[in-house]
Write a structure and sequence with these properties.
about 20% helix, about 220 residues, 5-stranded mixed beta barrel, 2 domains, Thrombin, subunit H, 12 strands, alpha+beta
């Protein structure tokens, strides 16, 4: 047993050998502290909850008020290695790495999903690997979503991508407004090709817009 209310559910960020990085909503994890957690990991077609015991190496607060925890997985070597092998096959959350693997494009695209609060949202920005969205309620981290983005491209007006929620917070300056970060998971190869094409187009349009604003500013000086 992990206690009266069970171990805390934490979000998988990264793993290297026996070093596990996860995101926690609580500050209770202190360096040197042994914690029992349930690691939420996207494996195959669903989020799995893996019970783990870890010892904390370090912790720091993130901009969304959650905490990034670096720890070591405890247990005998054979069981630990089996668990590491399983976890290592999971996709790493783009936003959880706190470093972009692709350029983030500030753009407002309408998106729809049965898994979204109110069934709709608008992107704040997006990259090839994930998106930040504004929505009508919180999304439980680890939730799998099939999101249809309205791209409004002549040859690709809409595209549906599978994603997993990484974080979700209420906006302090706006009542009943929420933001969330989603990580795109493995897509069907044909869908991935279409998404890479759409992303390249959006990136090109963004670059052209920035250049136009820069030139207009130069001429106005």
């Amino acid at each position: 047993m992990f206690g009266l209310f069970g171990p805390e559910k934490v979000e998988f960020i990264d793993i290297y050998e026996s070093t596990l990085t996860f995101r926690s909503k609580k500050k209770k994890h202190a360096p040197g502290h042994v914690s029992k957690v349930r690691l939420q990991v996207f494996l195959g077609e669903a989020v799995q909850s893996l019970p783990l015991e870890v010892v904390v190496d370090s912790i720091r607060q993130l901009p969304d008020k959650s905490f990034l925890v670096i720890s070591k997985i405890l247990g005998n070597s054979e069981e630990t290695q089996q668990m590491i092998t399983i976890i290592d096959s999971a996709p790493r959350p783009d936003m959880g790495r706190l470093a972009r693997r692709s350029e983030r494009i500030p753009i407002g695209l309408r998106c729809l999903s049965q898994q979204l609060p109110g069934f709709r949202a608008v992107t704040v920005d997006l990259s090839l690997h994930g998106a930040q969205i504004q929505c009508e309620g919180t999304i439980e981290p680890g939730t799998v979503l099939d999101i249809t983005f309205e791209l409004e491209m002549s040859d690709l007006p809409k595209l549906t991508l599978r994603a997993v929620a990484v974080w979700s917070v209420a906006e302090e300056e706006r009542r009943k407004a929420y933001k969330a970060g989603v990580e795109f998971t493995q897509q069907h190869p044909q869908t991935q090709v279409l998404w890479e094409k759409a992303y390249a187009y959006l990136l090109k349009m963004q670059s052209a817009s920035v250049m136009h604003r820069s030139m207009s500013s130069d001429f106005s000086d």
